[in-house]
Amino acid sequence: MSVNEKFSAIRKGLLEFLVLQIIAAEKVYVADILKQLSATEFATQEGTLYPLLSKMRREGLLDYEWKESEAGPPRKYYELTAKGREQLRETLEYWGKINGTVKNLGQK
Amino acid sequence: MNKVITINLDGNAYQLEEGGYDALRAYLEIAAARLSGNPDRDEIISDIERAIAEKFRTLLASHKTVVVTKEVADVLAEMGPIEADPDTAADPGASGTGAPSGASRSGTAGQEQAAGPGGPPRRLYRIHEGAMIAGVCNGIAAHMNIDPTLVRLAFVLLTIFWGSGLLVYVVMAIVVPEANSPEEKAAASGIPSTAQEFIRRAKEGYYEAVKGFPDRKARREWKRRFKREMRANADQWRYNWHSYWAEHAPFHPGMGFAVPFLSLLHGAATVLWICALISLLATGTVFGLVLPANVPVWVAALLLLIAYGIVVGPLKFARRACYWGMGQPRWVCSSVFLLDTMVWVAVVAALLWLAAHYSPELRDAIHSIPALAHQAADDIRTWWHGK
């Protein structure tokens, strides 16, 4: 099993965290999120992202508003709620801890 | 040469090659099945449809109007498979709205829809598409799952016999909100505003589904829903067509001048119809024409309604054509519409006044309205106290 395959579950779990981070920076719509992720190991597709966003909204982490676009119909722009920001802060902190553990464990 | 199928995604028509249509249908079906049990199913599906529509739009141009099978496949591959989120997929019963996942997979999805809990929440809205005035009757009909013509008839009868229908109508036109967004439109009629529903119906086939029903009540309910949804699709089509026209019509300010004349004719037809109806109900004759003995009054009233529809339909069509043909400045259209409505009301009022002045039966009928209203109020009061 390649490393890539071994990490598929972890990537999946981390996707929510990355989406939080992308949305925290600015109001975005789905194509923006996909574009930002596309260059990374976390490249994903609408079929995954829409259910995830709807779940995160249900959990109160983010919200959206309709905005007119220059061409075509209005789009949903997502932004974080206070709860979403809090979650992002906690996750970043926890991520820092994990990172430390990965680096330090087994070192003499 | 390939067959082309027109579909409605997010309120716009797209033409797909048949193979592409099949692929899209299969994709949306699988998506709906995977998301069953997800309380946001309808919203996610319409998000997905919107995204697909956006991708289709970038593929089309003025010289290219059809999305070919290969392109549909590419778009769907780009979308990727729908992944149900594990929380709801593992425990479908936990969600509050409780769309029963087993039922929707079992092939008798129509029945599950008819049972109620699967549909989106329903609210009373005014529905503008296909409306005659402000969409109140249309909204009530969608809300109660009946034919809008019946509701309109009820309002007209209420107005004629108890004089209250008009008042109720005006109040409702002010108080009840209009369904504007796709979500509101879905809530107004209880139909998810997604092509998935349409595709599912088309696939299962009307008669196939009807055969499978255990009892007559469920079958009747399903049939009614089916007809109404077909009508909703027709309305949607008309709406798309109107928008298209509005974008492409040449600017003809002169068309605005035709509107009041059309309104005049429309108003006259309405007055004639109201008078005929009153005369029919009060005396059993239509302008002196005695009904054959074996025709009941309600049949005659229905015939009158149909005749009215036949006369007024083309007039309405022409009026709308003029609105759309006037060109873009929105306020021009609105002010002409306002003026037009005022002319319409004035003509109806004036002609009614004239008719009442010169026809003793009509005058009697109108004079008896206050008494009838009092009686109706008394009836309601006694019924209320008796309860």
Order of helices and strands of chain B: EEHHEHHHHHHHHHHHHEEHHH
Q: Mean pLDDT across all residues of chain B, rounded? A: 71
Largest sheet geometry of chain A = 2 strands, antiparallel
Low-confidence parts of chain A, pLDDT < 50 over ≥5 residues?
A: none
Distance between the termini of chain A: 30 Å
Rg of chain A, Cα atoms, Å: 16 Å
What's the architecture of chain A, going by CATH?
Orthogonal Bundle
Verbal overview:
Chain A is mainly alpha-helical and 108 residues long. In chain A, 62% of the residues lie in helices and 11% in strands. Chain A has one domain: Arc Repressor Mutant, subunit A (Orthogonal Bundle), CATH 1.10.10. The longest helix of chain A is centred in the last third of the chain and has 23 residues, at 82-104. The model of chain A has no long low-confidence stretch (mean pLDDT 88). Chain B has 387 residues and is mainly alpha-helical. Chain B folds into three domains: 4-82 and 182-245, no CATH class; 136-175, no CATH class; 252-386, no CATH class. Helices cover 70% and strands 5% of the residues of chain B. Chain B has helices spanning 18-34, 41-59, 69-79, 86-90, 101-105, 109-115, 136-144, 148-162, 165-175, 182-189, 195-204, 206-211, 216-248, 255-283, 297-325, 330-358, 360-386; strands spanning 4-9, 12-17, 66-67, 285-286, 289-290. A three-stranded mixed beta sheet of chain B has the order 1-2-3. A two-stranded antiparallel ribbon of chain B has the order 4-5. In chain B, helix 1 (18-34) packs parallel to helix 3 and helix 14 packs parallel to helix 16 (330-358). The termini of chain B are far apart. Residues 88-120 and 192-196 of chain B have low confidence and may be disordered. The A-B interface holds A 30-31, 44-48, 50-52, 54-55, 57-58, 66, 72-73, 76 and B 10-12, 31, 35, 38-40, 43-44, 47-48, 50-51, 53-54, 57, 78-85, 87-88, 181.
